[in-house]
Fold:
Amino acid sequence: MQFDVDLYARSQANLRLLKSRLPTGSVEDLAREVLIRLNRPAAQKLAQNPDTDRIEAFCEALLSDDDQAGAMFIQEVRRAGASVEVIYLRYLADAACQLGRWWDEDRVSFAEVTRGTSRLYAIMHAMRHQVPITAPVTSKSAHFVSVPGETHTLGVRMAADLFRRDGWDVTLLLGKTHDEIVEEIGQSQAIVIGMSAAGGHALDALSRLVVALRLEKPDAALFVSGQILETDAETVSLLDIDGMAHDFETAQALIECHWDNVSARRNSLF
Structure:
């Protein structure tokens, strides 16, 4: 499977538009989220290491005026035989570490590092369907989450109860911090994640959570519901999520359809 150039371009365009609608502090939070999540300890487990010059060349491509340079660099690495794991855990992770170091040392500006992290995220997003499937689906399971800081949780509680009635094993995460949610889901086998937000006030927290979960669980499908879709549906759609549901029936149809597709794909491999 080749690098999805169209998905990369769409992710880039959506990220630029999203950032134009968020305050500067929130944009900085998204940049740091990318650097933190990509530069995690798991990146030290592979023996195949691109040398420092290669990583610096990749970083320069990410920061260049050419919107496609970083993506083309990774496409060449992929064509040369590098696995998805090596690209994720060595190239992307090492580049995140290098960009973070340059930012801390004031070698790159805020505008440059947000440009570079946006491109890193878009590259990752364009490759998410290449992440290997490691186990067959055995039971319907999902995580339903209220975004950090959200106090209106009746809707997500009701949705969890209704899905459980239909045979789903639903883990409900309420009143958790951003890091607690990401850590718990990151350590789980979750491939369906439903997020609830009650209005535009939750947009910053939702954006940061989506970015973090895309990086921690690239094989998971992300769905959003709640009152935020009545006020900010267009902005939420820029997050490149897998579905938006204004009501329970829509959420049920979207998630059941996704589960059937993933189950068929996984079970055909085992």
Q: What stands out?
A: Residues 84-104 form the longest helix (21 residues). The beta strands are 141-146, 169-173, 192-196, 221-225, 243-245. The two ends are 19 Å apart (CA to CA). The domain at 5-130 is CATH 1.10.1240 (Methyltransferase, Methionine Synthase (B12-binding Domains); Chain A, domain 1).
